[in-house]
Amino acid sequence: MDATTVTTAGADTDTGPGAERDLLLQRTLFSGPRKWVNDDLYSRLTRGVARRSRGEVHLEAGAIVDTNTYFGRFEASYWQRWTHVTDLMVRVSIESAGRVDVLVRASDIGSHVRTVDLVHHDGDGMAVLHVPVDTFTDGGAMWLEVHAVDAAATVSEVEWATTTTRPVRRAAVAICTFNRADDCAATVDSLASDPLVADLIDDLYVTDQGTDLVETREEFAHAADEFGDRLHYLRQPNLGGAGGFSRGMFEATAPGAPGPVDVLLMDDDVRVEPETVLRLFAFAAVTREPMLVGAQMLYLYNPDYLLVSAERTALAELKGGLDADEFALRDESVVENLQERRIDAEYNAWWSCLIPGEAVEKVGLPMPYFFQWDDIEYGLRCRQAGMPTCTLQGAAVWHADFYWKDGDDFGQFFSQRNSLVTASIRQGIDPKDMAKNLARTVLRAVAAMQYGLAATRLRGIEAFLDGPDGAFGVGDGGQRALAAIREERAGYPETAKLGVEALPAGITVERKVGIPREDREDQVLAKRLLVQKLGRQRRGVVAIPYEDAAWWHVALFDEVYVTDASQTGVHHRKVDPARAAELQKRLAALLARFVREAPAAQDRWRRAQAELTTRENWARLYGI
Length: 624
Description:
Helix 13 links the parallel strand 23 (508-509) and strand 24 (542-544). The model is unreliable at 1-5 (pLDDT under 50). This protein folds into three domains: 3-164, Alpha-Beta Complex (Spore Coat Polysaccharide Biosynthesis Protein SpsA, Chain A), CATH 3.90.550; 170-404, Spore Coat Polysaccharide Biosynthesis Protein SpsA, Chain A (Alpha-Beta Complex), CATH 3.90.550; 429-579, no CATH class. Helix 2 (181-193) runs parallel beside helix 4, helix 8 runs parallel beside helix 9 and helix 11 packs parallel to helix 15. The strands form six sheets. Strands 14-13-12-15-21-16-22 form a seven-stranded mixed beta sheet, sandwiched between helices. It is built from 16 helices and 26 strands. By secondary structure, it is an alpha+beta fold. Pathway: Cell wall biogenesis; cell wall polysaccharide biosynthesis. Residues 436-622 form the Galactofuranosyltransferase-2 C-terminal domain.
């Protein structure tokens, strides 16, 4: 059978219900989609001479190439755990005047390697290998090894496929953007650049919430020509990421829309590996039950590096983005390290995450959080309703490295409020224990002379207590809160980013020395605040690099210039005893209120969620 007859997950087909059809699960590509991507993420030359390009590799006689790489592997453990797939066909197109050996190799959780099938192929033609997916429950993957034995060879059109009787699912992609027109246009054009992937997408929703419109960009016009009436360009008020992504889900799952459907949410500023889109839709097409399927995040500025294998939360501490497993890779090169163990996720961030339409039918649309924690809350909600998340190894997009983003911004209001709401709805909170946690986070900001950050977090706590209909609630999708928080933060000078030229000439750089023991951090915090109150901290202005700007180090000084995480400027912080005292007084009163009112606030948010996540509420916010 010619490889081109294999259908993709969302492609149109005349196959009737219950009929068997071929399904393309992934392709083997030998190099990246752009020059800045390391080709070793796709294939490796282990002997001799070979030339790699996107869809093929040319081997000189005697050369060996394998695809035991991040994008080159078939992550069998994930497919065995979550899907109906039990066996595969691997098709390899070969051009050679001699013999070519093609092996499917496999690993286990201990990185032991075995051969599961091989062919000795002579001349031009198609080599077909058959491999089971049956011994990978806890970990392991499969990949190709190709040996040009006695003559040069070109290998291309490598496809991993299976047969299925599952019905074809509609494939939709939803992207939201706010004044990132160039980035968004490039992302949409990347989807159009791969003909197979472009054909796979039945509907592409681009929700533009800004004033610098994506539709004015040449790349977007090119993509629009490719997608035709499958591209839906939507305009609406700025409702944040939650509002933009929800709009795509809202449209794709509208009453009367053909189904079943999978909706792939994707950030506007990612750099897309089109193959990832194919793999996510193919995986979702054969899961045993509807589930969320997420891509991993590779760093944009360090393209070989993985953020984390999969993520979980600690709701009692209002923390997300934690390693899902002690064996999960984090901040490591996936050229040098490969994850053999299967790591199960609690949720997947929405830089790229597929949502089955059944999830919307069962649990509703996302919360109108504006942004921050909307992806976490929705993933947890689906998980508790019996629809877990798989963060699929070998499927990834490149996204701006998180450590280049400064944590002192208006987003801290939404993070504080929304994490409290999420913890209340999904798990429940202990008011006294949570009050201690909140006190710690606010006081650390005060000690570090981040008075605007402390005030922003206080507003987040107040907004939680005031409930969904409060002045800083979610009734308008977050627009009122956004404007108010930005205005309030403007009154705190240290929140402003200054140019590097603001650094005084000859200023001393002070790096952190020693790290407080975790069980002593509260005592250290109390000591730093007392020293500031008494005015006994070190005098004289100093510079502190971002990497050294831990609260317990910054608090040793009375005036500092701290580098912004973006490395594009600095923040000037100076001890202000009056402001510190005012914030601490406000915190004490608010925490007393929190202990009294948190149970009632928790109940209000829980009762409100059912209405907040309806189509009717979102339609009101969209203005339709």
